[in-house]
Amino acid sequence: MDQEEHIAQLRARRHRVELIETALESIRDVESSLQEMKEFLSKQLKAERSERLSDILEADKAGVPKTRISREVGLSRANLYNHLKGASPDA
Questions:
Q1: Separation CA 88–CA 90 (nearest Å)
Q2: Most CB atoms within 10 A, among 19, 29, 60, 90?
Q3: What is the dihedral of CA 10, 12, 15, 20, to 10 degrees?
């Protein structure tokens, strides 16, 4: 192999490495965006669950049957009772 062939091979290798690095950087950007979205949705879920608990407590105080509350919020009755038991009395 002469010098020009080595130079061509080195340039080709550099080009392939740069393409891979660019692809990896794009993946890192997507991962970062997904992580931010995950954190935002996790906070939103926590807030919604807190509001759901408030709604459950209000419905229970209003006399809505626990079976109906359970069905409407999508919780098993055991989980509903755990929520009601774990809630503070002034919540």
A1: 6
A2: 60
A3: -100
What is the rounded distance in angstroms from the CA atom of residue 11 to the CA atom of residue 17? Answer: 10
pTM: 0.69
Q: Tally DSSP H helices, then E strands, for the chain.
A: 3, 0
Give the tens place of pLDDT for each residue, 51-63: 999 999 999 999 9
Distance CA 14, CA 19 (A): 9
Per-residue pLDDT of the chain (91 residues), as tens digits, is 899 999 999 999 999 999 999 999 999 999 999 999 999 999 999 999 999 999 999 999 999 999 999 999 999 999 999 999 887 554 4
Classified as helix, coil or strand, 41 is: helix
Buried b (16+ CB within 10 A) or exposed e, 51-74: eebeebbebbeeeeeeeebbeeee
